[in-house]
Amino acid sequence: MSHPEKLTADWVESWEKLLAQNLPFKVFLKGLDLTYLACNQNYAADHRITPREIFGRSDYDLYPRELAEKYRADDLHILETGRSETIEERYVRDSQEFHVQTIKSLFRDQSGEVIGILGTFWDISELKRVETALQVSEEQYRTLFETMAQGVVYQDAAGQITNANPAAERILGLSLDQMQGRTSVDLRWRAIHEDGSDFPGETHPAIVALATGREVHDVVMGVFNPAKEAYSWIMINAVPQFHPDEERPHRVYTTFDDITERKNAKDALRDGEERYRSLFEHMLDGYAYCKMIYDDQGHPVDFVYLDVNSAFKRLVGLESVVGKPVSEAIPGIREPYPELLESYGRVASTGKPEEFEIDFQSLNKWFSISVYSPAREYFVAVFDDITKRKQLEERIHQIRSDLLFAVSHDLKAPLQTLRQTQEMLGQLPPAEALARFQEYGEIWRRNLQRLERMINNLVDSQRVEEDRFPLLRAPCDPVEMVQRVVEDLAGYAPNQQVVFDLNLESVSQGSCDQEALSRVIENLLTNAVKFSPQGGRVEIRLGLEGDTLRLEVEDQGIGIPAQEQEQLFQPFQRSRSAKQKGIPGTGLGLYVCRRIVEEHGGTITLESEEGKGTTVTVRLPWSNAQNE
Question: Of 279, 300, 299, whose CA–CA distance to 291 is shortest?
Fold first, then answer.
């Protein structure tokens, strides 16, 4: 390995002494063959060698091959072009990332001959970190500036607008180009006070902050927004900014919130108070706002009405209850009062709403009361008069009791007959029992039919109540249907000493639910028989009226008062005369008939006169089943 003769050992030693000074950066010298001739202490320390030990080494001895090849290429480029270069490089040492800035240039002797390459570099890692942090900070600031919901405007010392964010453009209805170079005074024609008077530009918070050097906060003004063609309401804060050692601010920035919705809501709230009071006064339910009164031990002892609406006064029958303890405000309140107080106190203490019903016997009324507590000592009670509902519930309870009695009575009668005949057969000698079996068998059949009718009506009534009565339509012959039902009741009518008189016209087959429609016919015929006198006659008429099938069942029974006729088609409803005469029944027959007929798209009507009998007419849409 050879070097120019001019680079004598004495010269290198002198150069090393020069570089041995504690320079803050790193220096190295390479010969034309790109091997190291010398370096300073800072450079040698990076490679854990002394400056003397660098002599004759190459980059391949000090760096990974990839970096060494890059450094060699950089050095050759400098030797070829003769130009110095400044290079920023990144490298990793001991798992730590470093950034350096290197200046490489040709190194010449006193005569100007190129004798090598001089390199100087220093660590700029901290600078890079600062630059990166600054860049991140600027990006964060820009993101915040661009995306924040508050409007931000910057103005210089003369009050001229220099920058504004998108929120400011949106709230003010002006673009940045329209605002730049203008002052708040230029925009004075656009601003108003809350009372509608002009807002002079010289009193704008930004201008005041520039003039006084003090922050200005929470100033409300209305600014005309040309994009909306309406005023937007804003709340402004202005903050002056100073250069060090200067007494006057060099700029000011203002931030402002769009409070249009808030102000409109406030105005609407004020306007709505009257509407609320009007609504409060005209609601059908009674509302009472109350305060709970506690004793020294914290137990509720009473409550006071703070506000009530007109409906509450009407419901309780009092005009003046506000400000009075409830125990004094409502006469006769003592009886339900402990229960009421306990419930109200529980809601006021727990904050959990409750709903309960209470009987104000002093007012002869039932109320449903819903109680809510906005705070421990206060609650709202909503009163709903449920007196009619309670009366209806009592009526339903009575109807159910009557039904239970009727059903149990009607069930017991045939069952008792069956049991008695069974016991009688059991007591007879076998030969006589066999002789009587056929006679008793007819009794059993009639009573079993009666039980079946009752059970079918009960089941069908429940099905129609739950809308579970799908029709199973099929071709059917109405004449044959009537005849079969009459035949099934052959033992029932004679037993009542009633005869059936059939007047049946020839009718073509139609589409219907044969089982359901047969039950209608059976219910109508058994009702007619039950209410007919002994020796009476029940006439059954069947025919067509155009496209309508008409079925009439007429009896000569006791008849039904006019005021009771319509209600007989409701469940569990029976005529007063039937109850008085002890005629058995559940009050479901006509109800089931009506629902079945209506499911077929038809109608059922009843005409009756007391003492002269009843006629029930069924009309159904009818068409030839073969044409469907």
Answer: 300
What's the DSSP call for residue 401?
A: H
Instruction: For the chain, give the percent of residues with pLDDT over 70.
Output: 74
End-to-end Cα distance, the chain? 118
Residue-wise pLDDT tens digits, 321-376: 787 777 676 655 555 667 777 777 777 777 788 777 777 766 777 777 788 777 76
CA 439 vs CA 242, 447, 488, 491: distances in Å: 123, 13, 17, 12
Backbone phi, psi, residue 493, to 5°: -65, -50
Q: How many CB atoms lie within 10 A of CB 337?
A: 16
User: Residue 85: how many CA atoms within 13 Å on its side-chain side?
Assistant: 15
Q: How confident is the model at residue 451 (pLDDT cuts 50, 70, 90)?
A: low
Note the pLDDT tens digit of each residue in 456-515. 655 555 555 545 567 788 898 999 988 888 887 766 655 667 888 899 998 888 888 888
CA 512, distance to chain mean position in Å, is: 46
- 8 A C-beta contact, residue 368 and residue 388: no
CA angle (540, 460, 565) in 5-degree steps = 55
- Which helix (H) or strand (E) segment holds residue 405: the answer is helix 387-427
Report the mean per-residue pLDDT for the chain. 77
Q: The tokens of 267 are what? A: 């105005």
Q: What's the CA gap between 258 and 234, in Å, rounded?
A: 5
Q: What is the distance between the alpha carbons of residues 49 and 1, in angstroms, rounded to a whole number?
A: 21
Query: What tokens were used for 551?
Result: 């079925």
The amino acid that residue 116 corresponds to is: G
CA-closest candidate to residue 522, choices 439, 414, 609, 616: 616
Both tokens of residue 465? 């109540």
Strand order in the sheet with 603-609: 499-504, 537-545, 548-554, 613-621, 603-609
Give the percent of the chain with pLDDT over 90: 10
Closest CA to 36 of 87, 72, 65, 66: 72
Residue 197, classed as helix, strand or coil, is: coil
> ∠ CA 169-175-178 to the nearest 5 degrees?
130
Cβ pair 39, 19 in contact under 8 A = yes
Among residues 442, 438, 457, 448, which one has the least CA distance to residue 414? 448
CA dihedral of 34, 37, 42, 45, whole degrees rounded to 10: 90
Q: What is the pLDDT of residue 290?
A: 81
Residue with more model confidence, 302 or 176: 176
- CA-CA-CA-CA dihedral for 540, 543, 548, 553, to nearest 10: -10
- What is the gyration radius of the CA atoms in the chain, in angstroms? 54
